[in-house]
């Protein structure tokens, strides 16, 4: 007798990837976490190789009847097409749905047909859906596509302000000492030089984001950065609602990603106030569960109509947060 089939659900971001294997009845039979799988960051071939390894660890020898892969870095149609082509021939990819990780976050927070999700973690992005099937999304390519913030963006902004404080072009900020301490560097000049010559990875700047929120109530520069981050999150949500003609409709705005899930008081106060002012019919839903929960529910619903199976999966995944 062969092994019972499983479905595979994947939530992959810039720093980590979660993969779960479930029976069609919702039983959780495998779970594994690996490094970031964003193809924009590590390359398409490396992303697929990582996914292949994680899927095999989660599923074991069980046949995979359906897979749902929800990854950051899949924002444009050609990126989705490239990933679909790259997984052809993998034994777990015969019935695979691939999309941006925002859809996993969205389903983790709500099952409503009209909804918006904003993620603010390493980067920032948003998506909106409407009951008639309409969707809106963003290129999410950083500065060139109008994005601002997330861990990487905040880290760069911190260094920009610290550099200007260091040479007198800008006001002094408590962020200077935080940067030197966190990155264990003797001076701002030394840090800039090390980054310039490739002796440090720019990704180290991502670790500075929590310090911004910690100083938000005490430092003018940090407070301004927190205020702008809140405004950017609201702007993305309102843009989705406007483009879907849902501004006057009661709609959940799902908020997730490491920065939003952390619940920083000043940030969340700004986001909630901004939504209340610009989209008063919307209601924020902060997601602290792992988005692989939503990936699992989306994938499982393709192979079963059983609400019991979805409930079993939800309970199992909630126990293993």
TrEMBL record:
Ranges where the ATPase BadF/BadG/BcrA/BcrD type domain occurs: 10-298
Highest taxon listed in the record's lineage? Bacteria
Tell whether ATP-binding is among the UniProt keywords.
no
Keywords on this record?
Answer: Kinase, Transferase
Task: Please verify whether the record's keywords include Protein biosynthesis.
Answer: no
Pfam families recorded for this chain? BcrAD_BadFG
Q: Which GO terms describe its molecular function?
A: kinase activity
Question: What InterPro entries does UniProt report for this protein, alphabetically?
Answer: ATPase_BadF (IPR002731), ATPase_NBD (IPR043129), Euk-type_GlcNAc_Kinase (IPR052519)
Task: State the protein's name.
Answer: N-acetylglucosamine kinase-like BadF-type ATPase
């Amino acid at each position: 007798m062969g092994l019972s089939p499983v479905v595979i659900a994947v939530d992959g971001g810039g720093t980590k990837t979660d993969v779960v294997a479930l029976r069609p009845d919702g039983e959780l039979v495998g779970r594994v976490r690996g490094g970031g799988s964003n193809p924009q960051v590590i390359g398409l071939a490396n992303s697929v190789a990582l996914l292949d390894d994680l899927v095999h660890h989660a599923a074991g020898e069980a046949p995979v009847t359906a897979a749902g892969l929800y990854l950051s870095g899949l924002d444009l149609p050609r990126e989705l097409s490239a990933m679909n082509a790259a997984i052809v021939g993998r034994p777990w990819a015969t019935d695979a749905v691939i999309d941006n990780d925002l859809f996993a976050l969205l389903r983790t927070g709500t099952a409503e047909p009209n909804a918006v999700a904003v993620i603010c973690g390493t980067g920032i992005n948003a998506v909106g859906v409407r009951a008639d099937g309409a969707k809106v999304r963003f290129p999410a390519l950083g500065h060139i596509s109008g994005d601002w913030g997330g861990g990487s963006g905040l880290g760069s902004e911190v260094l920009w302000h610290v550099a200007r404080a260091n040479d007198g072009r800008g006001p002094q900020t408590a962020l200077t000492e935080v940067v030197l301490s966190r990155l264990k560097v003797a001076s701002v000049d030394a840090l800039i030089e090390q980054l310039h010559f490739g002796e440090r990875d720019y990704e180290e700047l991502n670790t500075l984001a929590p310090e911004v929120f910690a100083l938000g109530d005490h430092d003018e520069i940090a407070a301004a950065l927190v205020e702008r981050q809140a405004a950017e999150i609201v702007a993305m949500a309102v843009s989705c609602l406007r483009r879907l003609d849902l501004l006057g409709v009661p709609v959940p705005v799902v908020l997730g990603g490491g920065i939003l899930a952390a619940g920083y008081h000043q940030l969340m106060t700004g986001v909630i106030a901004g939504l209340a002012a610009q989209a008063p019919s919307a209601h924020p839903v902060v997601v602290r569960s792992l988005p692989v929960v939503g990936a699992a529910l989306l994938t499982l619903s393709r192979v079963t109509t059983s609400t019991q199976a979805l409930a079993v999966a939800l309970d199992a995944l909630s126990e293993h947060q």
